[in-house]
Amino acid sequence: MNIKKILLIALLFLFTLVTVGLISKKSSSQFSPKTFFSSVSNIIKKKPKNVCYTNEKYEEIVDPNAPILSIPFDLKNYSTKHWGIVPFCALIGTGKIHGALDFELKPDAMVYASADGVVEHTQVGKEEGSGEIISINGNGFNLSYSGLTNLQVKAGDTVKRGDYIANAVRIPHGEHHVHLGININGKDECPLKYMDEEFLAAFKEMFPQADYRSQTDARCACDCETVTPDWR
Q: Lowest CB count within 10 Å: 38, 57, 152, 218, which one?
């Protein structure tokens, strides 16, 4: 290796040290190898500035009988301690497409009905982390909730939007969450398409805060109609 290459490498290394030093100066006045490598890692893994939350090609729902969903929890109970949101169309573990939205919540957060309907059934979920499940039939649609405990309703009960129906349960992975899915004519639909203004505004606030591992890859929560999702 000639002296020019050695000098160039030395200058690049010095520049990196100075840059990282400036970055870490705000949080600490002392330099350490741990701070150095952490800062470099953060630079390399920088997330995209703009995170989309839905497919812009979706057309507005004009059917007057289409369901309108309200947020099924208090926004103050949203949590990002573990991941925040699991998007619609995410590939979960075994590669199974996720046909709903999962929202991480604070411990024992109250869960509310997103729309009017009649409780079709309740049950204990078979899949890990499902907790208890509530299935509610509305006017031409079905809403499914899971990740629940302390159910306040039973099969045959009529519920109104905003009714308290359960609490979020702690699943084996350590987090609390509620799973919200909507099925119309036998097909899982993206709940985003049916959110009322308040729910959609809350989603816009929550989603960019989420740290679900696939977000930097696909970056959209509901993009199944036009592309093959790749959430690996």
A: 57
Question: Which residue has 């926004």 as its token pair?
Answer: 75
Contacts of 147 (CB under 8 A, 6+ apart): 102, 129, 130, 131, 168, 169, 171, 176, 177, 178, 179
What 3 state SS string does 1-15 have? CCHHHHHHHHHHHHH
Segments making up each domain of the chain, as ranges: 3-44, 75-209
Record the tokens describing residue 43, joined without a space.
């630079």
Cα–Cα distance measured from residue 204 to residue 52, given in angstroms and rounded to the nearest whole number: 9
**Model confidence at 142: pLDDT above 80:** yes
Tell me the CA distances in angstroms from 132 to 67, 136, 167, 184, one per residue in order: 24, 13, 10, 22
Q: What is the pLDDT of residue 71?
A: 98
pLDDT for the residue numbered 118: 97
What is the value of pTM for the model shown? Answer: 0.73
pLDDT exceeds 80 at position 30: no
Q: How high does pLDDT run on average in the chain? A: 77
Give the phi and the psi of residue 134 in degrees, each rounded to 5: -125, 130
